[in-house]
Inverse folding.
C-alpha cells in the first residue's frame, strides 16, 4: 500500500458528499484514516459524515465552494486538528459546460471548479506536505475526455486536459524536489454510476450494466497508488483497457500523422478508426 494510506493519517477530500468522493472517503476510513471533507451540498455532507463516523473514524467537514480560498483554508485548518495530512483527493467537479465559442460565463464557472479550485488546493496544501516531512499523496480527478477530447462539451474537455497537464507538472516538480516522499497522481475513471453521470439518481436507481460502481473506482485508485502509477486509468463494463489504449493512440496519431482534428469523429476517417479497433474484445462482466 502507498505509505500515504496509513492508520491515523488524514485524508482531505473535496466533493466528498456523494459519488466518487464519498466512496474514496469510505475506503480511506476502512484503512483507519481520519477524514476532512468539503462539499458544496451541506445537508448531503452532514449525512455523509454521519455515515462515515460509524466506521470509527474522526470526521470534520466544511460546507462551501471549493473555488473560494476561505473554504479551502478552513479545510486545511480543520484537517490539521485531526493529525498529519497524508492524502489529498481533489474530486469536486461539474460537467455543465459550453461550446467552443459561446457562453463565456459558463466556461468560467466550470473552469473555476474543475481547474482553478484544484490549483488553489495545491497552493494551500503542497507547501505543508513538503514541509511536514512524511509520506503523502495528491490525487486529482481527471477524465478520459481530457485525453481524447471528444466533441460535444468543449469546456469540460478543456478543463480536464488542463488538469492533466497541471498534475503531470506537479508530479515532476515533486519528484525533483522531494523524490517519492510526496507523489501526485491522475485518476481517470471510466463510465461510473455516480450522480454526476446519472442526474437525479436515488438509492433505488438501478445501475446500468455498462457502468462501474464508485466503490470499484475507489478500489482501483488505491491499487494504482500501491503500484506507484501516475495515470490510474480505470475501465468500466463496456470499455476495456485495450480499447482505451487504442483510443488514446488514435488521438495522439492525429498530431503525428497530421490528420484533421478529432478525426475519430470525422466522416472521412470513421471507417479507418473502426478498423483500428475492430479486433479489441469487450470486457467480460
Amino acid at each position: 500500500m502507498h505509505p500515504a494510506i496509513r492508520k491515523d493519517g488524514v485524508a482531505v477530500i473535496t466533493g466528498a458528499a456523494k459519488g466518487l468522493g464519498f466512496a474514496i472517503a469510505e475506503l480511506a476510513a476502512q484503512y483507519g484514516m481520519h477524514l476532512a471533507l468539503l462539499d458544496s451540498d451541506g445537508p448531503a455532507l452532514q449525512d455523509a459524515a454521519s455515515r462515515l463516523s460509524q466506521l470509527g473514524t474522526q470526521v470534520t467537514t466544511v460546507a462551501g465552494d471549493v473555488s473560494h480560498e476561505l473554504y479551502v483554508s478552513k479545510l486545511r485548518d480543520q484537517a490539521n486538528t485531526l493529525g498529519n495530512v497524508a492524502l489529498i483527493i481533489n474530486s469536486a467537479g461539474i460537467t455543465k459546460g459550453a461550446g467552443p465559442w459561446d457562453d463565456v460565463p459558463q466556461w468560467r464557472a466550470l473552469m473555476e471548479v474543475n481547474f482553478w479550485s484544484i490549483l488553489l488546493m495545491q497552493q494551500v496544501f503542497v507547501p505543508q506536505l513538503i514541509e511536514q516531512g512524511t509520506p503523502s499523496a495528491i490525487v486529482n480527478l481527471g477524465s478520459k475526455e481530457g485525453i481524447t477530447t471528444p466533441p460535444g462539451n468543449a469546456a469540460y474537455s478543456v478543463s480536464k486536459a488542463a488538469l492533466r497537464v497541471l498534475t503531470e507538472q506537479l508530479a515532476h516538480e515533486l519528484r525533483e524536489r522531494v523524490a517519492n516522499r510526496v507523489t501526485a497522481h491522475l485518476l481517470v475513471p471510466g463510465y461510473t454510476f455516480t450522480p454526476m453521470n446519472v442526474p437525479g439518481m436515488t438509492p433505488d436507481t438501478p445501475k446500468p450494466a455498462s457502468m462501474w460502481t464508485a466503490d470499484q473506482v475507489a478500489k482501483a485508485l488505491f491499487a494504482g497508488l500501491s503500484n506507484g502509477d501516475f495515470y490510474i486509468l480505470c475501465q468500466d463494463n463496456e470499455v476495456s483497457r485495450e480499447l482505451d489504449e487504442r483510443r488514446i493512440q488514435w488521438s495522439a496519431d492525429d498530431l503525428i500523422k497530421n490528420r484533421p482534428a478529432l478525426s475519430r469523429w470525422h466522416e472521412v476517417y470513421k471507417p479507418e478508426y473502426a478498423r483500428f479497433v475492430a479486433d479489441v474484445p469487450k470486457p467480460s462482466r
